[in-house]
Automatic annotation (TrEMBL):
A Pfam match: PseudoU_synth_2
Domain Pseudouridine synthase RsuA/RluA-like: 34-188
GO-annotated molecular function: catalytic activity, acting on RNA; pseudouridine synthase activity; RNA binding
Official protein name in the record: RluA family pseudouridine synthase
GO biological process, one term: enzyme-directed rRNA pseudouridine synthesis
Organism: Phenylobacterium glaciei
Length: 252
């Protein structure tokens, strides 16, 4: 989970269709005077998407009050990752949450379907440095030695929730927020995420086609601007739940 890039000025309002407004409003899973949390579907870019399709950042104009700014993204999720994404409704809330995230006070929990079967050991930590590698307009992350000049520290904790002979459902907790971190770390222990063609993930599991990257941001805990800690959860999306059922993996 990464912070969105800083912008120098508030972008101009975006005109949205009634269907787009209805869509983004249907994604809301929590709201109070300070924050707005949504359950982002897979396939929707958080920010900076290409083409004519609006990004989630642009769809947030559906919540803007007349003459006021729209909610601000506090972090991003990869386009093909579903789950909890947090926005701030005011500048003070954005500043507070941004500082809290940079101080590593956010706790993120993901779920992923991997193959083949459970990792060995079934729970543990992957702490392997990563580096960015670009090919044309595409960017990748690669594992690398700690002394590589472009190495970035990266740490992921994982545990197996359920498994069978050919797949497993894992719970993932990243301690750092590098691009594609979970995807590359799991591939590095020979358990790539299903549907992740970029990093070697299977496109079918147990004869069941996988429709997309099987990675879901299921929960987010963070300090709230009014005090205390909030935990927001997003239910497993139907497409991922259908794959779990089809391949016989139980979801706790």
């Amino acid at each position: 989970m990464r912070p969105p890039p800083k912008t120098k000025a508030e972008p101009k309002p975006v005109t949205l269709s009634p269907d787009e407004i209805a869509l983004v409003r249907s994604l809301v899973i929590y709201e109070d005077p300070h924050i707005l949390a949504l359950n982002k579907p897979a396939g929707l870019s958080s920010q900076g998407g290409r083409g004519q399709v609006h990004t989630l950042d642009e769809l947030l104009w559906a919540f803007a009050k007349p003459g006021k700014a729209r909610p601000r993204l506090i972090h991003r999720l990869d386009r093909d990752t579903s789950g909890v994404i947090l926005t701030a409704k005011t500048k003070p809330a954005a500043g507070f949450l941004g500082k809290a995230m940079m101080a590593h006070r956010f706790s993120k929990t993901y779920r992923a379907i991997v193959t083949p079967g459970a990792p060995d050991p079934t729970g543990g930590t992957v702490e392997v440095p990563l580096r960015r590698d670009e090919s044309g307009r595409e960017a990748f992350m690669r594992v690398c030695p700690p002394d590589h000049p472009d190495a970035e520290t990266a740490k992921t904790r994982y545990r197996t929730l359920s498994s069978n002979a050919f797949a497993a459902l894992l719970e993932l907790s990243p301690d750092t927020g590098r691009m594609h971190q979970l995807r590359v770390h799991l591939a590095s222990i020979m358990r790539p995420i299903s549907g992740d063609a970029r990093y070697g993930g299977a496109l079918a599991v147990g004869g069941q086609p996988v429709p997309r990257l099987m990675l879901h941001a299921g929960a987010l805990s963070f300090p709230h601007p009014e005090g205390g800690t909030r935990r927001i959860e997003a239910p497993t999306p139907p497409d991922m739940a259908a794959v779990l059922t089809a391949i016989g993996l139980a979801e706790p």
